[in-house]
Predict the 3D structure of the following.
Amino acid sequence: MVARQVRRKKKNAHQCCYISSCLYGGFVYSEKIKKKKRQLITYAPMEERDKNRIDYLNTRIYKDDTTCIKMIRFKRGSFFQLCQVLRERSLLYDTIHVCIEEQVAIFLNTIGHNLRNRLVGTNFIRSGETISRYFNLVLRAIGELSNELIRPPSLIPWPKLQGTQDGIHILRYDKLCRPHTCRTHCKVTIFF
């Protein structure tokens, strides 16, 4: 009986030594990993980037109607009216980093010039992910307003189209003066 107790005590002592050595080895290994960790990348102050973003919006969009039309294909009054409608109906929200006006400007600039996220991100000093996220949010919000903003085409053709083949498609001529029909039109009218 005494021999059993002695063996148990020895066995428990060996187990304690083994566990403590494993814990110590794990601690030493984790300290080595912490020391080998690479240096973190430091970024410029956020205030400077925010100032550059606001400056971009002020000079490219809010400046006057001419630059606003060139950048987002909207007059300033219509642009702010659209932003106000989206805000009042709670379709878009200001976030900590991006206001509704900037979200809508990103969307309109992208579709107005057929730009890629990388280029729009460079212009607005944002990442491609941020541009994509807010583009999709505004697209969904505009989709909610589609019944009010987009009306079906009228059956009466415009005066410019009255002399065409069927009243809808415009005849174009190629270099050999052969007429062919251009069928790359969109039969909707957007008004605001």
